[in-house]
From TrEMBL:
Molecular functions (GO terms): oxidoreductase activity; quinone binding
Species, as recorded: Georgenia yuyongxinii
InterPro entries (alphabetical): VKOR, VKOR_Actinobacteria, VKOR_sf
Entry's localization field: Membrane
Domain Vitamin K epoxide reductase: 21-162
Major location (coarse): membrane
Name the UniProt record assigns to this protein: Vitamin K epoxide reductase family protein
A cellular-component GO term for this protein: membrane
Superkingdom, taxonomy of origin: Bacteria
CDD domains reported in the protein's UniProt record: VKOR_5
Length: 212
């Protein structure tokens, strides 16, 4: 004889799941729009710098907070063109995915897993750029930091959706444990911890420039 959960429990769980899927897509939408704006500003600045390397950008505040210093480093054009151009191409795709999903579209498993893999590469690239700015270039770009933060939230939002929909084909026991963790909001907490650590690292190294 098969044990069935009470109808009320199933309804409650189904309602939670629907809301749990919508939240990360809403966060994806907001994050990707912010990242698109940042990419646009950085792209315009890259064109301005190409025309006049001595131009002063709006976010050239001091030696530590200087978009111009970062933009003229080789790391800012790793593939032979400004990295910001990548954002102009990829972020509209994320916006479309988020909007369609909020409207009720469910993308195929292969598509969502592929998107997760692509954004994993984007996440690694974003943090590599942050490390280069922080450790090598010696200056930070506020718009680049916004892209890093947005990439982090989009990646974790995609991860939450893929776990909720079990697109990774996890075993029942593993999936149940992952779902339990999601219910506690551990993924959101992890993002907050990462952002706090980044902010702390920036303050420790650049406190004189920021508050002096």
């Amino acid at each position: 004889m098969t044990d069935l959960a009470p109808a009320g429990a199933l309804d409650t769980d189904s309602t939670w799941l629907r809301r749990a899927v919508r939240r990360p897509f809403a966060l994806m939408l907001a994050s990707s729009v912010l990242s698109l704006i940042a990419s646009f500003v950085l792209s315009v600045d890259a064109v301005r710098l190409a025309a006049n390397p001595d131009v002063v950008l709006t976010c050239d505040i001091n030696s530590a907070i200087s978009c111009g210093t970062v933009a003229q480093a080789w790391q800012a054009s790793l593939f032979g063109f400004p990295n910001a151009f990548l954002g102009l191409v990829t972020e509209p795709v994320v916006v479309t995915i988020a909007l369609a999903s909020l409207a009720g579209v469910r993308f195929p498993r292969w598509f969502m897993v592929t998107a997760q893999g692509v954004y994993l590469l984007g996440l690694v690239f974003a943090y590599w750029l942050f490390a280069q700015s922080y450790l090598v270039i010696g200056a930070l770009c506020p718009w680049c930091l916004l892209v890093t933060a947005s990439t982090t939230t989009v990646f974790t939002s995609l991860l939450r959706v893929n776990i909720l929909q079990n697109n990774f084909r996890l075993r029942p026991g593993t999936h149940a444990r992952a779902m339990s963790l999601l219910r506690t909001g551990v993924d959101y907490a992890a993002v907050v911890v990462v952002f706090v650590l980044l902010a702390a690292a920036i303050i420790v190294k650049y406190h004189n420039e920021l508050f002096g």
